[in-house]
């Protein structure tokens, strides 16, 4: 077994929204983007043990020992007070887990799932752990049938995808805007590397799904439909999932942004269909 470790934000044993079928979703802590629209903003940073959350916890589930913030799961009431006031956009509840520990959790639910999805935060910021985890799954006879997917923002360099290629069954990537300046405003970074990742993954049969998040008044898919449609067409027969923005769980200015409804999604869908993009997946629900 492999003793490599990762900082884990959460594990959902049964998820139907993190890839095809029922999957175990493993959320790793830390992200290299700062998306204003992030629905899990406490997964962006990493706890620096500043201790500001400790006196704010209404259930005394947090304490400081030897300069480190300690979380008591048996006392925690999941009120999320610590998440909303953390200056690092982190969580003191993130746990360091080894490949062996994660494998144990996967093994418990393996008969009932089709695979695992490693998400985040941004999963690929802990790439060596993902590679070790997937290698272990592929080499364990009782788990080798599980598909191994990554949900990513696409910021990983091509050299990283090449390292992952041998053990990864597919990657789902978000393209949060077409225009790089717009992407910079939304996420803190441009999107040149993300577009390169999307193209490389498609060329090598690893792009499971391209995801577009429709944010009324902020995403640019409609105004850039011509260029976006041509880009998607060149990727080949790739599913494009249209997600609808909602402000639930969002911090900062995006809390005041309007949610996307069926009309917003239909407009983007029709614009892409008019340019030959037909393998579109609408939202399962609107919040």
TrEMBL record:
Residues 38-67, 68-96 form the 4Fe-4S ferredoxin-type domain. CDD domains: Radical_SAM. The keyword Metal-binding applies. Residues 17-287 form the Radical SAM core domain. InterPro entries: 4Fe4S_Fe-S-bd, 4Fe4S_Fe_S_CS, Aldolase_TIM, BssD/PflA/YjjW, Organic_radical-activating, Organic_radical_activase, Radical_activat_CS, rSAM. Pfam families: Fer4, Radical_SAM. Keywords: 4Fe-4S, Iron, Iron-sulfur, Metal-binding, Oxidoreductase, S-adenosyl-L-methionine. Its cofactor is [4Fe-4S] cluster. It comes from the Bacteria. Signal peptide: none annotated. NCBIfam families: activase_YjjW. Belongs to the organic radical-activating enzymes family. This is YjjW family glycine radical enzyme activase. It comes from Kluyvera sichuanensis. The lineage of its organism: Bacteria, Pseudomonadati, Pseudomonadota, Gammaproteobacteria, Enterobacterales. The gene is yjjW.
